[in-house]
Design brief:
The protein is an alpha/beta fold and about 250 residues long. The protein has one domain: TIM Barrel (Alpha-Beta Barrel), CATH 3.20.20.70. Helices cover about 35% and strands about 30% of the residues. It has helices at about 30-40, 65-70, 85-95, 105-110, 110-120, 155-165, 185-195, 205-215, 225-230, 235-245; strands at about 5-15, 15-20, 25-30, 45-50, 75-80, 100, 125-135, 135-140, 145-150, 165-170, 200, 220-225. The radius of gyration is 16 Å and the shape is globular.
């Protein structure tokens, strides 16, 4: 069985790392370059950088900051935010990113997934899906969680995999920043229909939450922000407890 991954997330606004609850109420969480370097040294398997205001501000992701972070880390690095073309993807990969994450742009232009996968390989293409429960289902949201697309999140995850995305980053908007645990029902349902690695995001508060995302939600990786930024849980401690619980991780 492949090792499960622990992925800190850097949500970036105005060049700083921020964190909120349910996509609002953002507070400063530190310098992204310093945090990235720390996580690389502390045993994170990968890192995700999301320029969370790029889409709404109609601008490109901060390439210079991507380059700076890449020079300080030794682990795979995914970048997202405001990416709308294969040319922009090329710029980010040249700046040091290993993968790119796209959300709003691929909802507007699903063929972008295929064009990117054809040019760079599916392993470089991460489909980010922000999902919010609506009754007995979940809808896809875009524009940093501000716009309900009306799309069914499970069907959309199946489609992005079919179009060539190599990975899905699934964020539960209902759980984001709440530290109440991942939405394991949604994760498990997506894992059944989308045959690509699934990253769980939104709700990490305890080590047990991370274990449940993998054992119950069938995720391949867990992504978290606050618990790592504010040192509520150390990455080494998380991995050790997961290992003792029978979850395969890189120690």
């Amino acid at each position: 069985m492949l090792a499960k991954r622990i992925i800190p997330c850097l949500d970036i606004k105005n060049g700083r790392t921020v964190k909120g609850v349910n996509f609002v109420g953002l507070v400063d969480a530190g310098d992204p370059v310093e945090l990235a370097g720390r996580y690389s040294e502390e045993g994170a398997d990968e890192l995700v950088f999301l320029d969370i205001t790029a889409t709404n501000e109609r601008r490109k992701t901060l390439v210079a900051l991507v380059r700076d972070i890449a020079s300080h880390i030794r682990i795979p690095f995914t970048v997202g935010g405001g990416i709308r073309s294969v040319e922009e993807i090329a710029d980010l990969l040249l700046a040091g990113a290993d993968k790119v994450s796209m959300n709003s742009s691929i909802v507007h232009d699903p063929e972008l997934i295929t064009r990117a996968a054809d040019r760079f390989g599916s392993q470089c293409v991460v489909a980010a899906v922000d999902a919010k429960r609506t009754g007995d289902s979940w809808n896809v949201y875009i524009n940093a969680g501000q716009k309900d697309t009306g799309r069914d999140a499970i069907a959309w995850c199946r489609e992005v995999a079919e179009r060539g995305a190599g990975e899905i980053l699934l964020t539960s908007m209902d759980r984001d920043g709440t530290k109440s645990g991942f939405d394991n029902e949604l994760l498990s349902r997506i894992s059944e229909v989308a045959p690509v690695p699934l990253i769980a995001s939104g709700g990490a508060g305890t080590i047990d939450h991370c274990i449940d995302a993998i054992t119950v939600g069938k995720a391949d990786a867990v992504l978290a922000a606050s618990i790592f930024h504010f040192r509520e849980i150390e990455i080494a401690d998380l991995k050790q407890v997961m290992h003792e619980a029978g979850v395969p991780v890189r120690l």
